[in-house]
Amino acid sequence: MMIVIDDNILKPLKISKKELKLDLAIGLFIDYKTTLGQSAQIANMTQGQFSKELSKRQISLHYDIEDFNEDMKTIESLNL
User: How far apart are CA 49 and CA 40, in angstroms?
Assistant: First the structure.
């Protein structure tokens, strides 16, 4: 899919196409519409780079009680 935004809209905002892609990716991630990996792809970044950008903006990764419980089950199954 291609999204076209006229340069006349972007110029007054003083935002580059790269910044716009990053802001879009972050917005989708915050709204739980994309995963970390998908958002990183939208922003043309690695997951590590995207995670660092989230951290810089004080945005936490999605990790809820369900994720914790799944991690605990995995750990228990490893019999460590």
Answer: 8
What's the maximum distance between 2 C-alpha atoms anywhere in the chain?
Answer: 60
Residue 66 confidence class, pLDDT cut points 50, 70, 90? confident
The structure tokens listed for 62 are 């999605």
Report how far apart the first and last C-alpha atoms of the chain are (Å, whole number). 46
Domain ranges for the chain, please list them.
14-77
Confidence of residue 80 (pLDDT cuts 50, 70, 90): low
Contact 67, 41 (CB under 8 A): no
- Cα 25 from Cα 44, distance rounded (Å): 10
The angle formed by the CA atoms of residues 29, 35 and 41, to the nearest 5 degrees, is 90
